[in-house]
Amino acid sequence: MSTAELAARLYEACLSKFPPDHLFYQQDLLGLGIVPKNDLAQLLQLTQTLVDQKLLRLLQGKNDRLAWKIISREDAEKYVFGIELLQNLNPDESLVYNVIHSTGRSGIWVRAIQNRTGLPKSILDRCLKALEGKNYIKSVHNVKFPTRKMYMLAGLAPSEDVTGGAWFTDGVLDANFINSVSTFIEYTVSRKSWYEAPAVEVQRNKRIKTADGSAAAKFPDRSSDRQYLPFPAGYQGYSTVATITAAVNESGITPVRLGEESIVQLLQVLCFDNKLVSLNNGEMYRSIKNPEAVKAQQARKPGPIDPDADDDERRRLVFNGMTEAPCGQCPVFKLCAPGGAVSPETCEYFDPWLEKALGF
Amino acid sequence: MTSQYATELCSLLIEDNFGELFARIFSTLQRYDRLTLPRLRFYSRLSDRQLHHGLAAMVQHHLIYHYTSLEDGNTYYETNLQSAYYLVRSGKILEMIEDRLGKYAATVMSTIMFLGHAQIAHLETLPELKPQRSHANGVGEEMKEEAEGQANGVDGEHELDELVENAAIHSTLKALAAHGYVIQVRDAQFQSPNDNVLDAQRVLKARPDVKEMKGKKQEQFLLENTERIVKERTDGDLSRGLMFNGVPQGVKRKHSQKPNEERREYVDIDEDEENEWSDDDFGGNSPMDSNLVVRVNYPKLDVALRNRRLVELVDQESSSATAQVYDCLLRRIEYQTPRCRDIAEIPREGEESEQYSVPIRLSALVDDIDPYLDLSGSIGPMEVPQGPARRGKRPLENGVHGDTDDREGQPSSTTNGTSSSSSGASRTYEVDQHLCLLAQPPYNFTSKRMIGGLINWTVEYRHLARKLRHTELERIIEARYGDVALRVVRVLHAKGKLDEKRLQEISLLPFKDLRQVLASMQAGGFVDLQEVPRDAQRQPSRTIYLWFYDPDRVAAGILEDTYKAMSRCLQRIRFERARLREFLDKTERSDVKGNEERYLSEGELKTLHQWRAKEALLLGEVSRLDDMVAVFRDY
Ligand code: SF4
Q: Is A353 in the pocket of ligand 1 (CB under 6 A)?
């Protein structure tokens, strides 16, 4: 193991096993059992590496013994950076830097930097260019204000407000990604939403007749090979945001880990699409369709209803008088009046419609 | 519903059903709102004789209101658009009556519809309402012959026959009355609702104690009492005394005494018609008062149709067992629900308070449900079996079939549909389970009430009516603009007014798609854009644009369009008929009618069949459009 790696392990161990303001003596560090064979020379080498990285600070302990204090990574970075900054930036640049720094993960609009610093536009531009060139700041795309030029510190990840969440890449909605994740979610949720009845029971169901036998005919069983039954009210085994998020992250369909907020965003969309139902104020989610139906529907190509699709499919999706009758779809509906230029008598839509429906 | 297209439609319906004279009177009155006879004669250019005949018949059909003013002594005539519109719904109503109460009841109902209103004594004499001896006797002529044949028989026998015959019509009328499908005609029903209100107020104001009241107080008093008086005067309910424990007489007893016989709901119409209605169905044989004049009670029928619509929806969304349980609950509620709404107009979105139906006791419901209906096989277990070593089960779950070890396929006694009916407690539990399932989102078809420690179930109809309206709108939106549009509309509906960016964040749609769909929906009048300027100059760059979806406005527009589409379909039927006029006249000839096979050539027969198919299809479409009108206007 290299010195650097050992040093890193030592640092982590110190961080996890002791309180942050602990004063470390030699025996504390050796006691962590990280330094091979408790070699004192090597220990000193490691501590020196960490001191150089500003992760440890060397102190004078009791009786003039050597002691160390641990420094958080964040503070260490600031410290390193601070010195560097002082060395590398001119006063205007550091003024701009500080303004950008103060806005954290939200980023700041160029116009706002100008207002706050009072620098002339040309100088500001030069500063920004310099800072960006040295890789201290970066420009970010804000979904809320796509036309504004915004900056934030290079080392920070923009907040959800700025990016619009996981569903945006560079401020543009990633529709394919959204589709694949929501397809996955709907299917995952559906598998937990329906009870798959064993085949034996299905058989039994079919045999049972009602008193007069006609009820069975009135409500024919929509039978398929498998039978999916709804769970009783109060069932607790539906998917939750946590289980769905875990499933999505484990599935390998997402290159980045998605947070629960992002998943909730998508779940809401699925609810708006009438694919899922949220129960107990979003505590759990249930699918409207059973897994088999979800699969079948996902196999069909998405998008607006294909006017050439066979009638069965169209009927199932849209189903009322206005969507069926020629007048409900008529492009000249508003103009149509009996005796007028467009009229039910001269109408050219009825004949094809009748022909299609009746087949003659 | 005083719109241009509703009026056009009603005039068409009247012309199709009653001919040109009625239509002429109707549209004249419609145009001028309210006319005296001389004015009507002037505007319609009809002769006195025509007018007298027409008005009298139209009044009998409740197509026209009339009102005689006490002030000037004139009689004013006014159209009854509502009644006229119901002409289009009659087929649906008769179908439902046949489904529920059998073919004979449907015949009685259609006779009453045909007459507008009818005295029971008159109905008794009608040959088409004599019980039929056999199915072959479908035609009126044969019936008459049969009746004459009886008249020639021995006197005593004849009287007996008549008694039996009248018993059939009386028990059927009682069933119709008990269900509230027919009501008694009252004088006030001939006056428009408006006149009735004014009349009631006049009566109230004439009372000395009311006269003494001061402004505000008097107003308040009038407001509170007018409705009551109008109700008293127009109420024609005949179901009182014909109900037994909240169920119209006959329905329940039959079920519990002879569970093996067909139940009302699922009457097999091909079975022997006469036995369907036995005399002992109704308390005693006491006939109805022959002097009563009865008419069809459309508001009540709308309640039944609305329930049927909801059951259909449940049937699509869940198992048939659940749908049947729901059907029983809604049936019970129907018996105690006189109309769909208490207010004339559909209230605006968000301004409608929750209104629960009468609560129905779970135990009462259990008795109504077909004891042979398998309730356990259509709901999953409370916990999914996790292999042989399953953890503790709550005893409550007995009766839901998952408790037995399904994986080994050994149904226990509770999973067995027939034996479960023997154990009342578990049956009750199962029924409750189905009702709980119905109470779930997204529809919330039912809601549970504990009353005095007993489980009751009710239905919040206002919310369901809204749901039905939204569904119809969404179907149109989906058909016209695709599923992207549907998502956008739902987001706007749930969240209110949104700017484009916020809309995108919630709907997660690419800007291009979003803009496109918003623009086309805006052009179609489904969504609107509101401009909120941020300064007085109203500069576009300083203006926020908010999208919104107003289902009330959209629904009102679609209702108009629906009326119009119905008219166009009816006009097209007329046009198609005109195209075939000569040929159709031939088929209507009395010698040809009924003997088409003999008199028509093969080609002509084909044309005839095609014409009938066309007409049926177009009428079917009109009826589907009427379903939408019902949702937007009546439920
Ligand atoms: S043109 Fe034809 S389809 Fe269009 S509204 Fe008129 S009748 Fe209907």
A: no
CATH number for the domain running over B301-382+423-459: 1.10.10.10
Nearest CA in chain A to B631: A320
For residues B373 and B377, what is the distance between their CA atoms, to the nearest angstrom?
10
Residues 6+ apart with CB under 8 A from A244: A185, A188, A189, A263, A267, A285
Q: Give the number of beta-carbon pairs within 8 Å between A and B.
A: 230
Please indicate, yes or no, whether residues A206 and A107 belong to a single structural domain of this protein.
Answer: no
Please indicate if any CB of chain B lies within 8 Å of the CB of A208. yes
Number of domain units in chain A: 4
- Smallest Cβ distance to A219: which of B320, B381, B411? B320
CB B382 within 8 A of CB A232: yes
User: Does the pLDDT of residue B185 top 80, yes or no?
Assistant: yes
Closest chain B residue to the Cα of A235, Cα to Cα: B382
Domain ranges of chain B: 1-79, 89-185+238-296, 301-382+423-459, 481-549, 562-634
- Tell me if A82 is assigned to some domain: no
Cα nearest neighbour of B437 on chain A = A233
**Chain B touched by A86 (CB under 8 Å):** no
What's the CATH code of the domain at A126? 1.10.10.10
Q: How far is B431 from chain A (nearest CA, A)?
A: 12
- Alpha helices of B180-214 — where are they, by DSSP H? 193-206, 208-211
Shared domain check, A194 and A257: yes
The string of pLDDT tens digits covering residues A286-319 is 999 989 888 888 877 554 444 444 444 444 445 7
Overall fold of domain B481-549: Arc Repressor Mutant, subunit A (1.10.10)
Q: Which of A167, A232, A328 sits opposite B565 (nearest CB)?
A: A328
Q: How many residues are present in chain B?
A: 635
Taking CA atoms, B352 is separated from B303, B310, B467, in Å, by 19, 20, 13
> For all residues of chain B together, what is the average pLDDT?
83
Instruction: Give B525 Cα–ligand 1 centroid separation in angstroms.
Output: 19
- Examine residue A149 and state whether it is found in any structural domain, yes or no: yes
User: Which residue has a Cα nearest atom 7 of ligand 1?
Assistant: A344
Give the residue with greater pLDDT, A222 vs B514: B514
CATH placement of domain B1-79: 1.10.10.10
In this structure, of A1-5, B73-77, B190-194, B389-393, the range with the lowest mean pLDDT score is B389-393
Tell me: do A275 and A322 sit in the same domain. no
Band of residue B569 on the pLDDT scale cut at 50, 70, 90 = very high
Best residue of B266, B408, B421, B426 to probe chain A, by most A CBs closer than 10 Å: B266
- Residue B277 is predicted with a pLDDT of 43
Q: Which stretch of DSSP H or E encloses residue B550?
A: none
Domain-embedded: residue A303: no
Q: Confidence class of residue A94 from pLDDT cuts 50, 70 and 90?
A: confident
Give pTM, 2 decimals: 0.77
Q: Are residues A103 and A146 located together in one domain of the fold?
A: yes
Quick one: pLDDT band at residue B161, thresholds 50, 70, 90?
Answer: low
- Tell me whether residue B433 is exposed, middle or buried, using C-beta atoms within 10 angstroms of its C-beta: 0 to 12, 13 to 18, 19 or more: buried
For the stretch B95-137, pLDDT in tens is 999 999 999 999 999 999 999 999 999 999 998 888 765 444 3
Contact call for residues B85 and B13 (beta carbons, < 8 A): yes
